[in-house]
Amino acid sequence: MSNHSSLQDRYGRKINYLRLSVTDRCDFRCAYCMAEKMQFLPRDEILSLEECLFIAKVFVALGVDKIRLSGGEPLVRKDFPWLVARMRKLDGLRELVLSSNGSQLVQFAVPLKLAGVDRINISLDSLNPDVFHRLTRTGNLHQVLAGIDAAITVFGSTSIKMNTVMLHDSNHAELPAMLEFALARKIDISFIELMPMGETGHHYATSFYSSADALAQLRQHHTLIPSVETSGGPARYWRIAGHESRIGFISPHSQNFCADCNRMRVTARGELFPCLGNEGMVDLLPAVRAGDEAGVRDLILQAVADKPEAHEFDLSQPGTHIMRFMSRTGG
Ligand code: SAM
Ligand code: SF4
After folding, report:
1. pTM for the predicted model, two decimal places
2. Who lines ligand 1 at CB under 6 A?
3. pLDDT digits over 22-79, tens only?
4. Which structural domain, as residue segments, surrounds residue 51?
5. In angstroms, rounded to a whole number, what is the distance separating the alpha carbons of residues 244 and 249?
6. Which residue has its alpha carbon closest to ligand 1 atom 5?
7. Does residue 86 contact residue 53 with C-beta atoms inside 8 Å?
8. CATH number at residue 110
9. Which long-range contacts (C-beta less than 8 Å, at least 24 apart) are formed by 42-45?
10. Region at 32 (left for phi over 0; alpha for psi -120 to 50; beta for the rest)
11. Structural domain contains residue 1
12. 328 C-alpha to center of ligand 1: Å?
């Protein structure tokens, strides 16, 4: 993938990818992502859609050519397609993509396509309605399955990817079935290693399930062939002869991918995190609220200069957590 960004950190990595969280709110409460009783940001601290657009514009002017809109659940944000349509028009933006839990895609697939979303990653951790409900605390599996099928109809299977967090004793026995689900729909699937984030009450160390274990499990059903393909992200891909889906593994613990990192994250409160797995942050909000474009640009350059070499996730030491919730950081 081409990367002509002018943003380069001190380790020589070019930053061309922004993940922007448009809300910290969500209609689900996934056990590994949120606490059961979540304290959400006060509404007046959340970026307005115009402020989201302003931030995107400054990043794109600096050479970022891919933006992922995330959350929380982006589709619970009122007038979200309005933002997509405006962002899509930014000169220099090559790809505008979305992460969603799928719960509202029956309703939103067409408006999002019309507004200019290129691709959607949809999270799905179980095909068992009871396990799904337990994991998401509020989610309805059938609604999400209908959302996935609506998205495939509207966007085409090559523009839809499934994301599955691997959880020992919760969904790990189901991983072969999740793979079959993706293969049958000709969509890509990424299996994600759990990351310890936020005071969710979730037991990260005991529910961790590694990519290596999942791969060994899937190999009992299929011959997986390593692929050199990349989507410009941290996933390592595999293929199965006779199938169109790519099978990705995102392995922050077992296969550190930091050397190739090309991204930065902005939270729904305008905090710029140069690394998902570090606490370092640059607050863009005051400069954004002042409409100070040069100020925002300088803060972004400062954050790029300070981007850490590698994440600090550590499951081996109990309590070693990144303290902010994934739902605030934008996954
Ligand atoms: N609500 C949307 C969704 O679920 O796709 C977008 C936001 S969500 C925070 C983005 C991704 O982060 C999801 O695929 C979710 O499963 C993943 N995620 C959340 N908490 C995680 C954790 N602690 N470790 C690994 N992945 C996590
Ligand atoms: Fe919501 Fe996505 Fe977090 Fe689940 S993973 S609680 S759907 S933000």
Report:
1. 0.93
2. 26, 32-33, 70-71, 73, 99-101, 123, 163, 165, 192, 194-195, 197, 326-327, 331
3. 999 999 999 999 998 989 999 999 999 999 999 999 999 999 999 999 999 999 999 9
4. 17-329
5. 16
6. 100
7. yes
8. 3.20.20.70
9. 45/269, 45/285
10. alpha
11. no
12. 10
